């Protein structure tokens, strides 16, 4: 370099105005992803997006799902009492008699406002009140499901939360359960919401978790269904004996245990306060001091040999497995292998379980996750041991079933990742492979598709009772009013969409009776029968006890309001004091009561099911639909003949002749008594002519 020469070196600017993107904090859930940690996290819907998606699905279910549990279940034990509170008439089962008091009026009262709001929107149309109630239940389910989903995302794993979310929204089981007016559905809400707290690892500092979960489990058991409290057992075990997020040294273990016991005991005492308003409402409604949760437990467990749930049928041990396979397809086996899958993961992929290697003073993530998977096994085991089984009994565990399945999917994906790395000896190639995401996507999509075919099967094969009720209100009764001149006549230039809704109030002038024979258990409820039409029963081959009508008139001293402070309070404070009346024609032995029936020739309309390809009749169940001289077919809808249809094609629905040709259908009909209805039409026309 020559003397006196300076060299200047130019460098690229180090400050280009761009800020370094902050590193995302690592997920702290129980399960840890092992690939792509440095990359962005997997996409999961936000709470807001989850609510919007769930609301769309659940409201659709509220509008289009069937009511499957009709036989003295959802309809007669809950929809009819709600209708009685709202409208002043309806059917009463023996469980609602003060002599037995097995149904909580406090639970029914929780649903009193939605039908009233529906009536405000469209006055005089009970159908709107019915669907307003179901939409209300749909939104409750939406918020509960979304809350649990976000807890799974934050406390367990983001991918597990995503799998859970999509398994839930497309599940045929949740399609039915989410909007059912049943205590078991209410227990499903409270259990899922309780788990949104219980799934967070317990710690001595987090007292809110203990109190909230305890109260929610208690609400589900006291207001809803007392047996659902069994689902809280793993939570109680964790709260009392598992360190959770605490680090407990041997010296502080006694103080730690004392603190945990004291905290749970205090939360339990607070939960007992729920009994006060529930017992007050139920006692006021029944006119005597009652504890409905205890009555339910006593009847089901200590009813004796002559009474109890077995009077209403028993099922084999595999009933729930068969039912869950239909409603959840292969999601069920995935849920049932979740605990064994966790054990396999502990052996072959232990790093996936938690952020740390636990010491003797800490809880293992394996233990924490096992406690969250345990409630499903516990619930399924308890119900399987009971001889009387019903689909609705499984409802409280439906969200937990989807959670267990989501965990299994995630753990199986982890095994494949471990195997891929061992085969290729390249974690980088494993992180770039799409086979893992394609596998999990295929599982979720396949399950959703099968669930969709089940939902479509329920609609196409079994929706006829709803369709017939619609035809009665929207077609036949307007025709009757039009034929007798009781419909208003609008000027010809008024567009149809600007005409007011048809007012069916004049129907009461005809004193119409809609009768149910062998189809009594598929009755969709009084909310779907317009006011002015009386529902009655006619004798069929069924020889058990049918519901009776609630007392509808005012009760005097002879009506049973004397003889107690609570009965006198009911007259002043309870909206329907008729619920305190003790009927003499109700029993808990399922013995037939002949006073329920009216002669069939007193019926104006009759609902009957006819299978023309395989006709059957008896003196008590003649083929009314074929007696065309007496009964006219007003409307008939197809209804699946399950006995003569192939199992696969009757359980799932697919388009095309090749699939549908394996099924056979009957006619679910609304029949009109030609003589009675025709005579009433003629009398009313003559009366109007004389008045004119």
From TrEMBL:
Keywords: Endoplasmic reticulum, Glycosyltransferase, Membrane, Transferase, Transmembrane, Transmembrane helix
Annotated region (Disordered), positions in chain: 1-28
GO molecular function: alpha-1,2-mannosyltransferase activity
EC number, as in UniProt: 2.4.1.-
Membrane topology of the entry: Multi-pass membrane protein
TM segment ranges: 128-148, 160-175, 212-237, 264-286, 324-346, 366-385, 397-416, 436-457
Cell compartments where the protein resides: Endoplasmic reticulum membrane
Superkingdom assignment: Eukaryota
Metabolic or biological pathway, per its Swiss-Prot or TrEMBL entry: Protein modification; protein glycosylation
Comp. bias regions, Polar residues: 12-26
EC supergroup of this enzyme: transferase
InterPro entries xref list: GPI_mannosylTrfase
One GO biological process term: protein N-linked glycosylation
Gene Ontology CC terms, in alphabetical order: endoplasmic reticulum membrane
Family the entry assigns: Belongs to the glycosyltransferase 22 family.
Protein name: Mannosyltransferase
């Amino acid at each position: 370099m020559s003397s006196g020469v300076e060299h200047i070196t130019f460098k690229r600017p180090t400050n280009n105005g761009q800020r370094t993107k902050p590193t995302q904090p690592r997920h702290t859930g129980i399960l840890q992803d092992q690939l792509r940690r440095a990359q962005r996290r997997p996409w999961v819907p936000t709470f807001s997006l989850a609510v919007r998606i769930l609301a769309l699905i659940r409201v659709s279910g509220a509008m289009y799902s069937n009511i499957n549990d009709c036989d003295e279940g959802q309809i007669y034990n809950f929809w009819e009492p709600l209708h009685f509170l709202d409208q002043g008439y309806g059917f009463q089962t023996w469980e609602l008699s003060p002599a037995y008091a097995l149904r909580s009026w406090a639970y029914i009262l929780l649903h009193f406002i939605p039908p009233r709001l529906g009536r405000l929107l469209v006055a005089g149309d009970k159908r709107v009140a019915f669907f307003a109630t179901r939409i209300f239940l749909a939104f409750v389910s939406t918020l509960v499901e979304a809350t649990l989903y976000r807890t799974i995302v934050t406390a367990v794993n983001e991918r597990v939360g995503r799998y859970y979310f999509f398994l839930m929204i497309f599940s045929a089981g949740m399609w039915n359960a989410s909007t059912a007016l049943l205590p078991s559905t209410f227990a499903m809400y409270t259990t899922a919401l309780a788990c949104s707290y219980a799934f967070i690892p317990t710690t001595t500092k987090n007292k809110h978790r203990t109190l909230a979960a305890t109260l929610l489990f208690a609400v589900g058991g006291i207001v809803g269904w007392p047996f659902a409290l069994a689902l809280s057992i793993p939570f109680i075990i964790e709260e009392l004996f598992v360190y959770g997020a605490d680090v407990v040294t041997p010296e502080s273990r006694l103080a730690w245990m004392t603190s945990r016991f004291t905290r749970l005991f205090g939360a339990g005492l607070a939960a007992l306060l729920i009994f006060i308003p529930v017992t007050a409402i139920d006692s006021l409604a029944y006119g005597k001091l009652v504890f409905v949760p205890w009555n339910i437990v006593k009847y089901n467990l200590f009813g004796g040999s002559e009474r109890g749930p077995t009077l209403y049928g028993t099922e084999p041990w595999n009933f729930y497995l068969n039912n869950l396979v239909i409603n959840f397809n292969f999601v069920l086996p995935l849920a049932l292998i979740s605990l064994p899958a966790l054990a396999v993961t502990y052996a072959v992929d232990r790093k996936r379980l938690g952020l740390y290697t636990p010491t003797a003073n800490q809880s293992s993530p394996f233990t924490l996750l096992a406690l969250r998977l345990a409630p499903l096994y516990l619930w399924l085991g308890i119900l399987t041991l009971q001889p009387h089984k019903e689909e609705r009994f499984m409802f409280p565990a439906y969200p937990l079933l989807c959670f267990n399945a989501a965990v299994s999917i995630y753990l199986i994906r982890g095994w494949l990742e471990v195997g891929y790395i061992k085969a290729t000896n390249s974690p980088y190639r494993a992180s770039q492979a799409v086979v893992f995401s394609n596998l999990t996507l295929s599982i979720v999509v396949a399950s959703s598709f099968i669930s969709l075919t089940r939902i479509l099967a329920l609609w196409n094969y079994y929706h006829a009772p709803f369709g017939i009720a619609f035809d009665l209100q929207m077609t036949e009764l307007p025709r009757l009013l039009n034929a007798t001149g009781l419909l208003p006549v609008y000027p010809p230039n008024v567009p149809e969409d600007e005409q007011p809704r048809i007012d069916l109030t004049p129907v009461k002038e005809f004193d119409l009776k809609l009768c149910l024979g062998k189809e009594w258990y598929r009755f969709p409820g009084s909310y779907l029968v317009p006011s002015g039409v009386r529902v009655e029963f006619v004798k069929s081959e069924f020889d058990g006890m049918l519901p009776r009508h609630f007392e509808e008139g005012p009760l005097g001293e002879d009506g049973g309001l004397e003889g107690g402070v609570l009965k006198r309070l009911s007259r002043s404070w309870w909206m329907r004091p008729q619920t305190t009346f003790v009927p003499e024609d109700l029993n808990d032995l399922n013995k037939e009561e002949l006073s329920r029936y009216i002669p069939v020739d007193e019926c104006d309309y009759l609902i009957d099911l006819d299978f023309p390809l395989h006709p059957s009749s008896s003196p008590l169940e003649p083929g009314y639909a074929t007696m065309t001289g007496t009964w006219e077919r007003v409307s008939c809808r197809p209804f699946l003949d399950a006995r003569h249809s192939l199992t696969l094609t009757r359980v799932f629905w697919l388009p095309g002749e090749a699939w549908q040709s394996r099924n056979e259908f009957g006619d679910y009909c609304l029949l009109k008594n030609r003589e009675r209805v025709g005579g009433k039409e003629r009398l009313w026309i003559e009366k109007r002519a004389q008045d004119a």
